[in-house]
Amino acid sequence: MVVRVGFLSLAHMHAYSYGRALNSLSNCILVGIYDPNQERGTKGAQAMNTQFFSDPEKLLTQVDAVIICSENNRHREFTELAAQYGCHVLCEKPIATTMEDGQAMIDACQKAEVKLQIAFPVRFATPVRQVKTMLDRGYIGEVVAISGTNHGQMPGGWFVNPVLAGGGAVMDHTVHVVDLVRWFLGQEFVSVYAEAGYGMLWDVDIDDCGMLSMELEGGTIVTQDPSWSRPRTNPTWGDVTLRIVGTKGIIDLDAYAQNFVVYDDAQNKVSQRSFAEDMDLGLIVDFIAMITDDREPSITGFDGLKAMEVALAAYESARAHKPIALNRQRQGSEYY
What we know:
The chain has helices at residues 14-24, 38-47, 56-60, 75-84, 99-112, 126-136, 162-165, 169-185, 279-292, 301-320, and strands spanning 3-8, 28-34, 51-53, 65-68, 88-92, 116-119, 143-149, 189-198, 207-216, 221-225, 241-246, 250-254, 259-264, 269-274, 324-325, 330-331, 334-335. It is α/β, with parallel strands linked by helices. It is globular and about 55 Å long.
């Protein structure tokens, strides 16, 4: 089976990495790209050696699945449209900007009997998967505390528009670490206390740094720094790190440590080049296999919803200056 795939928007920079992954595989074909920004879509189609569609519905009649890399607040719109045409969906994170929109996306895909997967590619990094195996085998006993970071450069563009992005650094980077912790331990977060700084690192009107203190069911404590704190001259975009403390030992994880530093006098810059497996390729391989094998997504819409719930609670906590309890329960297709 050859899976026909299209893009709905290239607003998110990960689209180009996903496009390269699609073009490297023999069991799928990149049929085309729709983007409401015609210039961006046309350039992207040329770069990915595919066709630009000015009408999303024409594209959707020719594909089995779509990858949505739009602005965050348009994820629901494009997911519901894809579901109407019976297309499976890989949606960039965060799943949406509100719990209502995220749940609506899940419901639309369930009603249309199509699969919804959320793009958390860090799960496919080799060091991350090794840590998952170690935890599943109980190498460090019971986990009692986790401290993490997801630092990055300030992305600019629509990422610093609160309406389009739904939040700044806290929204952008909290969801990755929360998803990893939920996946590692199989536990839900029950409370969040957060501080968020607005324009403290960059000249932006949105949060560019923060600090979260969270609690999991069972009492495990998790802290995270999700800041846009890497300078423009940083040799890589950022990091994903975790220190996982157990009753029998400690695991230190650096998901991006597989690289070497290049000092380039000719270009007057320092860069890092990775020799790790491509986690974006791993995500795309998994998405295509989900369709060909007719199995459930490895990263579900519900996973995306729970990760976003923590980020939204962090903003509520920062505004209220108090911890926020996460005690809503999923019942059927509704979320309370």
